Write a sequence for this structure.
């Protein structure tokens, strides 16, 4: 569905997805007035359709894009502050994972030691 931009005399501007057949219908602004269709050179669409790498479905609207991002575990860019925080969280998780795997390796290495060596080490500690 093509996206059209409307300009109201109150100053606000809004986008509507409309079927081609109904694009001439007047659109009401939040303020209650009838807004005029804005004539722009690219009034048909704000985003290019693309095929989801996850589902293979065609993504044509911002709504479909949000759902697709959610399904793939991705999300929209939320601004520098939020992105920095998310990156720090990921780093923390990664550290935890490293700690765990280091701990696991240590335990496994310990278990693999000959019992004589273990006894010597236990006395030493
Ligand atoms: Zn208005």
């Amino acid at each position: 569905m093509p996206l059209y931009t409307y300009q109201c005399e109150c100053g606000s501007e809004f986008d509507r997805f409309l079927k081609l057949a109904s694009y001439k219908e007047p659109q009401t602004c939040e303020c209650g007035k009838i807004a005029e269709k804005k004539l722009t050179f690219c009034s048909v669409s704000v985003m290019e359709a693309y095929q989801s790498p996850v589902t293979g479905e065609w993504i044509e609207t911002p709504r479909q894009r949000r759902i697709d991002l959610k399904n793939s575990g991705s999300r929209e860019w939320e601004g520098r502050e939020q992105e920095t925080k998310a990156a720090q969280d990921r780093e923390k998780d990664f550290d935890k994972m490293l700690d765990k795997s280091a701990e696991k390796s240590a335990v496994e290495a310990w278990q693999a030691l000959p019992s004589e060596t273990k006894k010597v080490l236990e006395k030493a500690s």
Q: What stands out?
A: DSSP finds three helices and six strands in the chain.
